[in-house]
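README, section 4: Worked example with a bound small molecule

Sections 1 through 3 covered apo chains. Here we extend the same pipeline to holo records, where the ligand is supplied as SMILES alongside the sequence. The molecule in this example is 2-oxoglutaric acid. Nothing else about the input changes; the structure line simply encodes the ligand pose together with the chain.
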Amino acid sequence: MGIPVLDFSVYELGKANVSVANLEKLSKEFRKAFTEVGFVYLKNTGINQEEVEKVMHVSKKFFCLPEDMKKPFSRGSFSCNVNHGWVAVENESLNPLRPGDLKEAYNITTLSADNIWPSDGVDDFQDVLVSFFLRCKDLSLRVLRLMALGLDLDSEVFLNAHKHIGSDANATTLRSLYYPPVNSTCVKENQLRCGEHSDYGSITLLFQSTESGLQVLNRAGEYVSAPSIPGTVLINIADLMQRWTSDVYVSAVHRVLLPPAGDFSTRQSLAFFVHPDDEAIISCCDGSDKYPPVNSYDYLLSRFNDTYGNKQALV
Ligand SMILES: O=C(O)CCC(=O)C(=O)O
Ligand SMILES: [Fe+2]
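The generated complex, written as structure tokens:
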């Protein structure tokens, strides 16, 4: 089965008074997609293509600044949050068996006004990224409600553990990703734009520029491409949600390939990694003991350790 495309218009951002019948229908479609594939494209969410392009445009301006202007914003230098900030090329390996990923990123984890934000040469960076973070947050909460309904659970079951998105008590992160041009003569053996991995938290929202490269591992064990479909958002289940649902909703492995040799195009994406609140204890929602309860933040820190290697672990 390929990645399905669902029409979210009945529950798009800004819409209130949705009928129970419409919510139920949509929740069943989510259930099918998330139990069989783990990925789904949503169209008509209320987040439109122009919004996405605006965020990519200001992000690219930042990534194209000289390195000494980006360094002051490095991940690890923000006292309020270990994950906030800029990550240089080859700094992380999402598949620790491969060389560092050929990508740059800027993580926005806390919206605290006390933070320093890039502004030289990118004066609207903070406004544009913060607004987009809040739009993604609203959409995520709608999806989490439908996901609970899809399992015949109380609609607030997942939402109750996502009350602090955007504050220092929750690790949800908007990550703007930039894949610079690749000179194939300099590429290391087995290096990719982004190595094989599954995401760590509850769900991920992903918006991609038109350049290809993203592949998802399907149940038959084959990688299938997940191209950008303008105007849609690609949503996937992450590992903590798989555990929370006792493996009913599945998180699928994915990666981003290098462009063909001689293709110097760049690529961009915006990933909104939704995490439960730091203090949330995640126990199997069916009441089973398939997995022992785990603290959400402890789980995340153990996954960061794998990604950054013990040398650079920030804990
Ligand atoms: O850039 C992409 O298309 C996907 C990136 C990704 O999977 C990740 O950062 O977790
Ligand atoms: Fe991912």
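What to look for in the output: The domain at 5-308 is CATH 2.60.120.330 (Jelly Rolls). Helices lie at 20-36, 49-63, 67-70, 125-150, 239-244, 296-312.

Section 5 describes how to batch many such records.
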